[in-house]
Amino acid sequence: MHASEGVRAAAVARSVAASLGLPADEAAVLHDSNKLTLRLLPADTLARVAPADDQVAEFEVGLARQLTEAGCPVGALDPRVEPRGYERDGFVVTLWRYYAPAADEVTPAAFAGALARLHAGMRELDVPAPRYTERVERALRFLADHARTPGLAPADRALLQETLRSTAEWIAARGAPEQLLHGEPHPGNVLATAQGPLFIDWETCCRGPAEFDLAHAPEEVGSHYPGVDAELLRHCRLLVLAVVTVWRWDREDLFPDGRRMGEEWLARIRAAAGRE
Known about the structure:
This protein is an alpha+beta fold. It has helices spanning 3-19, 57-69, 108-122, 133-144, 154-174, 210-214, 219-222, 230-248, 258-272, and strands at residues 24-32, 36-42, 45-51, 86-88, 91-97, 179-181, 190-193, 196-199, 206-208.
């Protein structure tokens, strides 16, 4: 969030928590992107705050409840308050249990095992979600809008368009089974806790092959996931890389050091296409 928005969002989170009987004298920022994630003390609750016109709070809360009930390795909602989104002053606040970080990092084997259990639980749920291809289509729209991605050189724009189209076509032709997915289970959305790895953040939930989720995880994780299609995973990694590279060239992107990362990722895509 922009700095001024972040200050207001933190104030709203503290106000909502206090009104629910959770004292929130302090708000420590844990993550700042399109949403603000805060640890509120002394109640020790986790608040996620999103602009009211850019949030899917009810979907996230409902899915998290179902996954928790199914025994999936997910971060739980704060049991001390009603599980829902709380709208106030242009923001929506959801409150979650805070987990103290474990001393050890999540190993690739533990990451893969937790993701496999999450996927098994998700296969049992009947939850509407967009297909992963909607991200590809959105990225292509951004590339077609030169005003939205003004910093891209013509050759790089064409390379990204070609990579997105050809890779998505290859994945579709593979015909792998599709299911409900987390959508972005990268390390930033996995908590290392005393209970083991726990997944958080459900706004990117989508449908697709399990390898699409694996493509967001560290490369070492794939070798521990049961029954993985290595060639499909390789193509999914390239597709995900192309999509996130487009976001880094969006004129409205606020990702820290995003342009440098966009340059690095473009170089990787050029190398994959043999255009170095």
